[in-house]
Amino acid sequence: MPVMEDSLLQDGELTTGLCTKSTGGAPTFNITVIMTAKTLVLLMGKEGVHGGRINKKRCGVASHLRRPQY
C-alpha cells in the first residue's frame, strides 16, 4: 500500500512522491515522479534509504531538466 505526497498538478512543483509500505518485513522503497515539459521521470531510492535523500535528488534533477525547457 503506497503512501502518496502529490504535487504533480500544482504550479511550480510538478512532482509526486510515493513511499511503499510492507507487511511481513518486505523491503520498502521511496519513489518519486517528476513531470517536465516533455517527459515523466521516475526515481527510485534503494531499500532503506530515507525519503529526504531522494527528495533532494528530485529537486536537482527537476531543476536541471526544466532549465533548458526539456
UniProtKB/TrEMBL annotation:
Gene3D superfamilies: Dynein light chain 2a, cytoplasmic
Compartment list: Cytoplasm, Cytoskeleton
GO molecular function: actin binding
GO cellular component: cytoplasm; cytoskeleton
GO biological process, alphabetically ordered: actin cytoskeleton organization; positive regulation of actin filament bundle assembly; regulation of actin filament polymerization
Entry keyword annotation includes Cytoplasm: yes
InterPro entries linked to this entry: PFN_sf (IPR036140), Profilin1/2/3_vertebrate (IPR005454)
Protein name as it appears in the record: Profilin-1
Organism: Camelus dromedarius (Dromedary)
Phylogenetic classification of the source organism: Eukaryota, Metazoa, Chordata, Craniata, Vertebrata
